[in-house]
Design brief:
single chain, two-stranded antiparallel sheet, mainly alpha, 2% strand, ABC transporter involved in vitamin B12 uptake, BtuC
Length: 301
């Protein structure tokens, strides 16, 4: 195989590894904005929370219950941490965010920004600002796989396949099932949906919790790959917002496709001019907004 082609494919795979996290985070953000019309600036902090919960479940739960040998492993954390983040999201929506519905969106943006600062402060206080490695990598996902053009870590390959599968399932549920139709109808015409006996406020709370749970899931998946720090979400949230804008605000498929494409594009750009990889998303956003202000998959108004 040509060395340049091999390098491009290898960088593309590494970029795709970042792209699946972009896609998962953008998907959760798009669900919340598309169905609830809420700009959740705390999404990055909830991603960080999911990663730290994976560490807490593995390293501290056994100590708290007096069984130092007890560890809540990766597979259990992959289920428990997103549920805990989703529960926090539902409580936040029910007792804080709900009071701001109907007001200018800037108020919900400021509230979620404040929540971000609180969460970051809490984790800095207990874990410090330095990185914390995740110690619970499952044995079956250790090692490497020969892809023909490169040796690729098994865990990273699992993260790519699993994340894409989750994105497709979420898209199908929201766009192709009765539950998704009720969610969309409940946000567009809540009075009509209430007439059918459906508790719209509860549905909104569950939707917000589901969107935040996706951020927590992304955090757990990222924990064995990246150094877990209290500011890991802050470094990512601006990129994720740009992806949502490019894909179309509220577009589920737009968030997924744009996140994956941007990851690939970042990886390939590094082959030719590495410094441009950090700015390619913003260049792309400017071009898309000039040509199609509603985004690639958004609805023109």
């Amino acid at each position: 195989m040509d060395p340049m082609l091999r390098l491009i494919l290898a960088q593309g795979m590494l970029g795709l590894n970042n792209g699946v996290f972009y896609a998962l985070l953008s998907l959760g953000l798009a669900v919340i904005f598309g169905l609830l019309d809420v700009v959740n600036f705390a999404h990055g902090a909830l991603y960080m929370t999911g990663a730290f919960l994976a560490i807490i479940l593995y390293s501290y739960v056994g100590i708290w219950v007096g069984l130092s040998w007890l560890h809540v492993g990766f597979w259990a954390a992959l289920v428990l941490a997103p549920i805990l983040v989703a529960c926090f999201g539902m409580l936040f929506e029910r007792f804080a965010l709900r009071w701001l519905y109907g007001l200018d969106p800037i108020y919900s943006l400021l509230l979620t920004f404040g929540a971000t600062l609180v969460l970051q402060g809490l984790f800095i206080n207990f874990f410090s600002a330095s990185g914390t490695p995740y110690p619970g990598m499952p044995a079956e996902l250790r090692g490497i796989v020969n892809l023909g053009f490169m040796m690729f870590p098994k865990y990273r390959l699992f993260a790519i396949v699993f994340s894409i599968a989750v994105c497709l399932v979420v898209w199908y549920v929201i766009e192709r099932t009765r539950i998704g139709a009720l969610l969309r109808a409940g946000t567009e015409n809540p009075e009509l949906v209430k007439a059918f006996g459906i508790n719209v406020p509860r549905m909104i709370t569950l939707t917000f919790g589901f969107g935040t749970g996706l951020a927590g899931l992304a955090g757990v998946l990222a924990a064995p790959i990246y150094s877990v720090t209290p500011l890991m979400g802050a470094d990512l949230i601006i990129i994720v917002f740009a992806i949502v804008v490019i894909g179309g605000m509220g577009s589920i498929m737009g968030a997924v496709v744009t996140g994956l494409t941007l990851g690939l594009l970042e990886g390939i750009v590094k082959v030719f001019y590495a410094p441009a990889a950090n700015t390619v998303v913003f260049i792309l956003m400017v071009v898309v907004l000039l040509v199609r202000p509603a985004g690639l998959f958004g609805r023109q108004r």
